[in-house]
Design brief:
The protein is of the alpha+beta class. Helices cover 32% and strands 39% of the residues. Helix 1 packs parallel to helix 2. It is found in: Cytoplasm.
Length: 187
């Protein structure tokens, strides 16, 4: 597994990098057969350290975790515990559904835009009704079943996920509703 361990405006020492690699490797090895790479980013938020971890699995799914603590090692331990819990749930769901994905998830390219909020544009009257594009990025849309899409959304901790439905070959959306349930849009 490839590791990318970095810090945002803080220095990450060799001891912390070694600790992260050994602990994360042990946690992931229990539940995932072939993780491809891990990205760990440490940063500061006021008096707390923040640890954000993203692990890409060979099946195409991505697991993310984030934790805060007063000490940098404690922030990593909290993040590692959350990651281990997510991977355990993922593996349990795979066993429950008796479905092993033999091929990796197919990804399709798409454009992603960040639009300026109304608060930024209220000071002056806009010349047109077109929104102001702040950033333009490329994103990937996975080809999944509905169950896998819900699992991917929960693993990523995202409120919404757009995916290509493998069974119907069309774009679908799953999202977390305010009442805690999951919504599925199938146009």
């Amino acid at each position: 597994m490839r590791y990318q361990i970095s810090g945002k405006q803080i220095d990450i020492g060799e001891a912390l990098q070694t600790h992260v690699q050994t602990e994360l490797n042990e946690a992931v090895k229990k539940y995932a057969e072939r993780p491809t790479d891990a990205n760990v980013v440490f940063s500061r938020s006021a008096h707390e350290y923040v640890c954000e971890t993203t692990i890409h699995l060979s099946t195409g799914l991505t697991a993310q975790a984030k934790a805060h603590a007063n000490e940098i090692y404690a922030a990593f331990e909290g993040c590692c515990d959350k990651m281990e819990t997510q991977l355990r749930r993922y593996k349990r769901r795979l066993k429950d559904h008796h479905k092993d994905r033999s091929e990796p998830v197919e990804l399709f390219g798409a454009a992603s835009y960040i639009l300026a909020s109304e608060e930024q544009t209220e000071e002056t009257e806009p010349e047109s009704l077109q929104p102001i594009i702040v950033a333009e990025m490329e994103t990937k849309i996975p080809s999944l079943t509905v169950g896998e899409a819900v699992m991917q959304m929960e693993l990523a901790g995202a409120p919404v996920l757009i995916f290509r439905n493998e069974k119907k070959d069309g774009l679908n959306v799953v999202y977390r509703r305010e009442d805690g349930n999951i919504g599925w849009i199938d146009p």
